[in-house]
Amino acid sequence: MKKEKYGMTAITKRKYKSPRQLARQSNIMKTVRTMLEEVGYDGMTIRGLAKRAGVAQGTLYNLYGGKDSLVLAAVDDLLSQLTGTAVEEAPGGGIEAIFARSRLIGAQIESTPRYADAMTRILFHVGPNDPLVDVLFAGSFPFLKSQLEAARQNGEVRPDVDIDLVARHLVGQQWGVVLLWMMGIIPVEDNGRERQRSEIMTLIAIATDKTRKRLQARLAELDGN
Questions:
Q1: pLDDT over 70, % of the chain
Q2: DSSP structure string for 30-61
């Protein structure tokens, strides 16, 4: 799967090609995410990461350039995986693909809250041109836009809808839910449900009559009615 298809940003300085190299890259990315979850951003060092991943420090510097680039690459890699899985779960695309990705990200936040917290805190302290913004914020926009366009083709949303505007609103809502969790307003286990609730409330306003009824029923299920 090519990341460009989902609007993700390539972070690595070099591209892996062989199965052995790809396996090593996957191991490095998993190790970065594990260490961030265990010790946080400040506690993770290149030396410690290299030792745990079983690679030389020079390899990490040659491939990624430094700690921040490694973190970005790990986040980008994870989001790309989740996005690809969402597309596989909803091969017809459209609204169900949006829900699938939201559910997967919510589950990921629930299973690795320290990691998600670290990434979000970094996001809220960077400028608009920081690469992390592209990965965590702008990186969601192409996927949402493409799925909204698919939803329009599927007859799920009205033909007059401004797809770009709705996609931007959905990105903002997703991070709004994360912020509510970080502020202690919602528990971490409700992250996925609240993400979907906010999406449904937006999509209902642009849905066709048939789809609106389906979304209203789904919203009722989330509310326990």
A1: 89
A2: HHHHHHHHHHHHHH--HHHHHHHHTS-HHHHH
